[in-house]
């Protein structure tokens, strides 16, 4: 299991489209992938769960992955969530 904490920096807010893309990215990996913020731990492959997270630019999230491709999953989600930090 690995985890990485990131600060969200995306165009616009985490509305339906960015959340849907995030779920699609997470779903490409066999590993279990969760996003953690405060006391919430949400399955990153669950569209309903991700919609309930209500994260926005400047939010701090921890990406947690466990499985054969955990490092690739964390890296892909981290890159997507912080794409405007570059």
Quick synopsis:
InterPro entries: HPr, HPr-like, HPr-like_sf. By secondary structure, the protein is an alpha+beta fold. The protein has 3 helices and 4 strands.
Structure notes:
- By secondary structure, the protein is of the alpha+beta class.
- It has helices at 16-27, 47-51, 70-81, and strands at 2-7, 32-37, 40-43, 60-66.
- The chain has one domain (2-85): Histidine-containing Protein, Chain: A (2-Layer Sandwich).
- Strands 1-4-2-3 form a four-stranded antiparallel sheet, with helices on one face.
- Strand 2 and strand 3 form a beta hairpin.
Blueprint of the fold:
Elements lengths: L1 E6 L8 H12 L4 E6 L2 E4 L3 H5 L8 E7 L3 H12 L5
Antiparallel strand pairs: 1-4, 2-3, 2-4
Protein name: HPr family phosphocarrier protein
Q: Low-confidence parts, pLDDT < 50 over ≥5 residues?
A: none
Distance, first to last CA: 26 Å
| Fourth CATH level, the homologous superfamily | HPr-like
Biggest sheet architecture: 4 strands, antiparallel
Q: Any guess at the CATH architecture? A: 2-Layer Sandwich
State the CATH topology: Histidine-containing Protein, Chain: A
Estimated share of beta-strand residues: 25-35%
What strand order characterises the main sheet? 1-4-2-3
How much helix, percentage-wise, in residues? 25-40%
SS-based class? alpha+beta
According to CATH, what is the class? Alpha Beta
What's the overall geometry? globular
Number of separate structural domains? 1
């Amino acid at each position: 299991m690995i985890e990485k904490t990131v600060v969200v920096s995306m165009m616009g807010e985490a509305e339906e489209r960015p959340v849907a893309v995030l779920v699609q990215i997470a779903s490409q990996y066999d590993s279990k992938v969760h996003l953690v913020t405060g006391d919430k731990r949400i399955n990153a492959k669950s569209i309903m769960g991700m919609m309930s997270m209500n994260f926005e630019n400047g939010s701090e999230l921890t990406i947690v992955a466990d499985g054969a491709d955990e490092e690739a999953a964390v890296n892909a989600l981290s890159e997507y969530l912080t794409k405007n930090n570059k």
